[in-house]
Q: What sequence folds into this?
């Protein structure tokens, strides 16, 4: 076999960054040319609300009162036991889920939670399913685990899970399903009725195929809901073979600290061996010992969030304005994204035209759904206000 200096699949990923990151980098370059204030960058889901002051208080207290070697040293590979115990108690207080510290594995954020879990359970030839529209990196994560991602076509009316299409696509090769609510990119919160029907369908398929189908609940936006919206019951309470992949990046505005966890449901079939596989996967991927200080910080700030009223204000302003201008917008009950139908069939062409007005939007194709754009409104309200004339001019260029 001829010498190969690098994996061609990794080379391809490196040379083809995600469309989200490409748009963000374009925005940085454009800002240098015409000034940051003249570029309306809605590309990246980077929290714009500051972390709660209590997070800063905890960091200062830890640095002032904790031995530096202890504070910045390794924890157990699976995470510090006091931290896992505290998180388990918080989950049980909110959801009565029967979780213990032994069911939790601390991770370097949601991406690590997903990749560790997928590598733990997927074997070559397995299929993992998800519902469009979905976070584009799901495909990268699943294929890196030598499995195949099958995307269920979107429900283009309500953007709930399309259960009819799922029932037609699920197969004996289906090992896992990833769901994400509140959803990135739509901001839609799946209804309790939709989720219960989905779990009933999964259980029926498990019985039919004679093997578990694992449910991965990707939950970085669980706390980011508005008005009277609540996220439906905790998934391990609805379905036994469930994982929860969580991150504090959004709720505590800590994306750069890379801290989250995996819950392996105590009701899962062969729970202890599955948890051991998660530990082995973390070891193989190099994700042992999540950031030590960040573990302590989140454990001291459970139940807190940044000021969500700012995101709600941004949502209301952007949704009302764009709707008034003639855009079709899917109303988001959570997260910080607005899902908008492009004003022409080709979302990429629409986003290219939007750049003529310095509007940086993300086309929907990589999310597994054509004809829409994602607008991340985790930006300053002032930037949204400045961008509105550009959105209006863009709509008018299409005869709206």
A:
């Amino acid at each position: 076999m001829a010498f190969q200096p690098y994996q061609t699949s990794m080379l391809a990923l490196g040379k083809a960054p995600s469309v989200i990151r490409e748009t963000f980098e374009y925005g940085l370059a454009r800002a240098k040319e015409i000034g940051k204030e003249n570029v309306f960058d809605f590309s990246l889901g980077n929290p714009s609300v500051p972390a709660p002051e209590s997070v800063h208080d905890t960091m200062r207290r830890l640095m002032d009162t904790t031995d530096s070697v202890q504070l910045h040293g390794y924890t157990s590979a699976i995470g510090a036991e006091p931290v896992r115990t505290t998180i388990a108690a918080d989950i049980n207080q909110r959801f009565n889920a029967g979780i213990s510290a032994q069911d939790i594995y601390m991770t370097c954020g949601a991406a690590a939670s997903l990749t560790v879990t997928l590598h733990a359970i997927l074997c070559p030839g397995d299929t993992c399913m998800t519902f469009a529209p979905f976070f584009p990196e799901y495909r990268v994560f699943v294929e890196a685990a030598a499995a195949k991602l099958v995307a269920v076509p979107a429900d283009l009316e309500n953007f709930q899970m399309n259960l009819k299409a799922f029932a037609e696509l699920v197969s004996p090769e289906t090992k896992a399903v990833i769901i994400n609510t509140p959803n990135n990119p739509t901001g839609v919160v799946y209804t309790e009725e939709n989720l219960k029907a989905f779990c009933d369908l999964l259980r029926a398929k498990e019985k039919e195929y004679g093997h578990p189908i694992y449910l991965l609940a990707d939950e970085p936006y669980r706390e980011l809901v508005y008005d009277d919206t609540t996220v439906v019951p905790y998934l391990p309470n609805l379905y036994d073979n469930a994982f929860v992949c969580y991150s504090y990046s959004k709720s505590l505005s800590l994306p750069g600290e890379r801290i989250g966890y995996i819950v392996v449901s105590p009701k899962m079939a062969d729970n202890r061996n599955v948890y051991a596989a998660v530990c082995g996967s973390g070891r193989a991927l190099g994700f042992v010992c999540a950031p030590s200080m960040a573990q302590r910080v989140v454990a001291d700030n459970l139940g807190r969030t940044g000021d969500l009223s700012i995101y709600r204000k941004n949502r209301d302003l952007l949704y009302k304005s764009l709707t008034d201008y003639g855009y079709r917008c899917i109303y988001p009950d959570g997260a910080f994204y607005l899902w908008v139908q492009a004003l022409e069939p080709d979302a990429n062409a629409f986003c290219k035209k939007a750049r003529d007005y310095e509007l940086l939007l993300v086309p929907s194709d990589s999310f597994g759904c054509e004809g829409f754009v994602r607008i991340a409104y985790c930006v300053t309200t002032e930037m949204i206000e400045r961008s509105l004339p550009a959105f209006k001019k863009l709509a008018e260029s299409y005869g709206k």
About this structure: The longest strand covers residues 174-180.
